[in-house]
Amino acid sequence: MTADDVQAHADALARRALALPELAEARTVAAYVSVGGEPGTLALLDALRARGVRVLLPALLPDNDLAWGVYRGPDSLLPAEHGGGRMTLLEPAGERLRPRAVTEADAVLLPGLSVDARGMRLGRGGGSYDRVLARLERARVRPALVVLLYDWEVVERVPQEPHDRPVDAVVTPSGVRRFGRPASET
């Protein structure tokens, strides 16, 4: 895709996501800064913040768990090298919140490589978001779980492990697909 295509997809994705009742009613959203070929998230993060939503962004810990920080705009993001310099992520500057801070979120936006027709998400294999989902389950909180993807990343079936949990919805530039519980129950 060209740079213009990438931006157009990011803008469409932000519009679709912002129209979700789960995000319209949220006071706190745990999100992420896209990397590499992932659909762009900065427009969405800025729009949520402009609405007065507290946006939590992850900071990768040495054990692949996630601490969190409050997003204060694009200038508050700092590059952080991980894996001996093999990977650079943009992480929030400022105070680090403990991994359990995600349990305060009304909605959690999850990255992924794909989502299937059952709502099962395929991640990158590091287990960071599997830990997030397990933490939410242990805390007995049930924020809306939403994956942001390109249209072609929604597939018929992905591999599933016993610890995997389905998401509530996938948002793509062309639409929203829901799984499981309706938006009114999130």
UniProtKB/TrEMBL annotation:
InterPro entries: FTHF_cligase, FTHF_cligase-like_sf, NagB/RpiA_transferase-like
Highest taxon, organism lineage: Bacteria
EC id: 6.3.3.2
Name of a matching Pfam family: 5-FTHF_cyc-lig
Keywords: ATP-binding, Magnesium, Metal-binding, Nucleotide-binding
Reported cofactor(s): Mg(2+)
Enzyme class (EC, first level): ligase
Catalytic reaction list: (6S)-5-formyl-5,6,7,8-tetrahydrofolate + ATP = (6R)-5,10-methenyltetrahydrofolate + ADP + phosphate
PANTHER family tied to this protein: 5-FORMYLTETRAHYDROFOLATE CYCLO-LIGASE, ATPASE INHIBITOR/5-FORMYLTETRAHYDROFOLATE CYCLO-LIGASE
NCBIfam families the record matches: MTHFS_bact
Similarity comment text for this entry: Belongs to the 5-formyltetrahydrofolate cyclo-ligase family.
Protein name: 5-formyltetrahydrofolate cyclo-ligase
Species the sequence originates in: Streptomyces tunisiensis
